[in-house]
Amino acid sequence: MRSLITTLESEYVAKVKETRQLPDFRAGDILEVQVAVPEADRKVYTYKGVCVSRGNKGPRSWFKIYNVFPDAGGFVQHFPL
C-alpha cells in the first residue's frame, strides 16, 4: 500500500511541475511571497523575508520565511508549495 501512495504522489508532483514553474530556492535565500486571502475579499498580502527551511515531501512540500517588522518584531511564516 505504501508503494502505491508513493507512486501516486510522484505522478501528481510531475503533473504539477508540468503545469506551473516553481522557482528554485534554498534555505538562506531572500523570498517575496504574495498570498491572496479569501476571508479578506481576496486581499493580497506580501511577505518578504529569509527562507529558514524547506521541506520536500512530494505534494506536502513547504517552506518557512522569517519576516521582521520594525514595530512588531520577527516571526516565522509557514507556506505550502
Automatic annotation (TrEMBL):
Belongs to the bacterial ribosomal protein bL19 family. InterPro entries: Ribosomal_bL19, Ribosomal_bL19_sf, Translation_prot_SH3-like_sf. GO terms for biological process: translation. GO terms for molecular function: structural constituent of ribosome. It comes from Monoraphidium neglectum. This is 50S ribosomal protein L19. Keywords: Ribonucleoprotein, Ribosomal protein. The keyword Transport does not apply. GO terms for cellular component: ribonucleoprotein complex; ribosome.
